[in-house]
Model the fold of this input.
Amino acid sequence: MKIAVCVKRVPDTEARVRVGADGKSADEEGVRFVINPYDEFAVEEALQLKENFGSGEVVVIAMGSASSQETIRHALAMGADRGVLLETGSLGVDPVSAGKVLVTELQDGGYDLILFGKMAIDDYNHAVGPIVAELMDLPCVSAIAHLEIKDGKGTAEREVEGGVEVVEFALPAVLTADKGLNEPRYPALRGIMLAKKKPFEVKPVELSSTGLMVTAMALPPARPEGRIVGEGADAVPALIDALRTEAKVL
Amino acid sequence: MGGVLAVLEQREGSLKSVSHETLTAARALADQLGTNMEALVVGPPGVDVSSAGVFGADSVAVVSSEDLALYQPSACAAAAVDRVKSQEHQVVLLAATAMGKDLAPRIAARIDCPLAVDVTTLESNDGKINVTRPVYSGKASYTVAIDALPCVISLRPNAFTAVERAGSANVEELAAPAVDERVKTVVVKEPETARLDVAEAGIVVSGGRGLKEPDNFKLLEELADAIGGCAVGASRAVVDAGWRSHADQVGQTGKTVSPQLYFAIGISGAIQHLAGMQTSKVIVAINKDRDAPIFKVADYGIVGDLFEVVPRLTEEVRKLRKG
Ligand SMILES: Cc1cc2nc3c(=O)[nH]c(=O)nc-3n(C[C@H](O)[C@H](O)[C@H](O)COP(=O)(O)OP(=O)(O)OC[C@H]3O[C@@H](n4cnc5c(N)ncnc54)[C@H](O)[C@@H]3O)c2cc1C
Ligand SMILES: Nc1ncnc2c1ncn2[C@@H]1O[C@H](COP(=O)(O)O)[C@@H](O)[C@H]1O
Done:
């Protein structure tokens, strides 16, 4: 089983977001970066599949600046076999351009499965996985929370509003991981040491220009100052009154 | 010149209410662009598409077949792309639901065009389209200019208000594309409870670790039943503890919700939770800790023990509903 996992370097979920000096991108100064949490589920799933099949290779691919090396190293420390950094100065916001570059790396890889996170928590596009699948004409199931693979066929489950879709697919295929798929392992010290010796390639890439341009970045308007209507159960009538007459939502 | 194509969703034979939002936004955009608006409905035979005209469609293209009772991504993408090509549509709009989030990138990839996801505002001037969309889990937003057409745009549910107008649309039946044999949705498992989904409900009652035990969530279920039309949500802490299902989690690694009214009960208000609910219209917090960060985003707060406050709230709401 040969599996590729695409991982992105993103700001930690704890990070406060600030607008940069250009007014249209985030200020990265002092921000801690992590592997995109959904991509961690994808890496974990790849490792479990390889372990269950008893053989195979897990290749981790990240596109971004040289700092994305750390993100790949994290996945290698979890247990992936080798890494590829597609190095570029600027990622832009167009998922189709991002997908096209990833396809150039993925298309001749002979992968049985290509895994993604369901979305990157920075751009929130929720898009690159299905885009890569369409460009490569592969079956794709997005945002999966459950997966079984047997005899070259898979069954995946994805949450939709008011239910769970069960999807059957043939390999090779593209899958994108949602929370609930598994519990990602923490890299052990031994894993971190081993990761330093694992094969690692760097390839310069360039994203095509697109019809999308960020013209401004803004922080959400602060919510108007709220108020404590009171303490304990005795405050309930005042709350109900406010919801009915002031906010008109009850 | 082609117009705006609104790709709609159906459930049990009628258009979903989120599709009325898509239609309203599509109508407004078509008016700004001075063009027509067509709705596309892919589904089983017999879907009632009459509300498409009521919410602004000039025409409705219906692609139906018994094979399309469930969402089949490949056939839906093919139907939309065929229509964009044959009618030279300039903009494809859909709702950023589970289906729309899956379908939008597929359509954009097949057409090879720009994609803007989960947008909350949309307007056009001088043939350019400007959108805003939340990024960094709602901690910021981008204004994005789209200057290459066609393009695909998905709309955040609840961000656009559906507006009826007097109108009806011509319906055209189209041939259904084949379902890709390599990947098929075979069944949709219904949830155990008949409750609304947190991402769809107009009112969400959420609970956190302050509830102490999984069984105590029945206090929130009772409140939700008393109010009616409610979903019950949860913080990650209680989902990870196995008290509630992943489907109910609100926040950065759960669902993003924007209901009219959000109750955060026994939830501290961690930044990752706030990311998923701070665009709610009205937020109510019930927490025994006056300094809990949730009070910073709440419109109304009660400082107190939820085990006293919530039963009283349920009781008062019941009185109200009767009276
Ligand atoms: C990568 C990452 C992603 C995450 N994603 C999410 C996410 O999507 N959603 C999410 O919710 N969290 C998420 N978290 C977790 C988040 O950081 C918090 O740990 C979590 O939200 C806390 O849940 P809680 O508010 O239920 O629990 P706590 O923080 O323990 O808060 C419990 C609250 O209940 C109050 N309380 C206790 N007893 C009572 C009582 N009797 N009456 C009234 N109030 C009472 C307490 O004062 C306290 O404020 C994420 C974390 C990480 C690292
Ligand atoms: N720059 C990148 N490098 C590697 N993988 C990426 C990159 N951007 C996105 N991805 C993958 O695509 C998924 C969805 O991202 P997005 O469509 O941007 O929300 C992520 O979870 C990653 O698996």
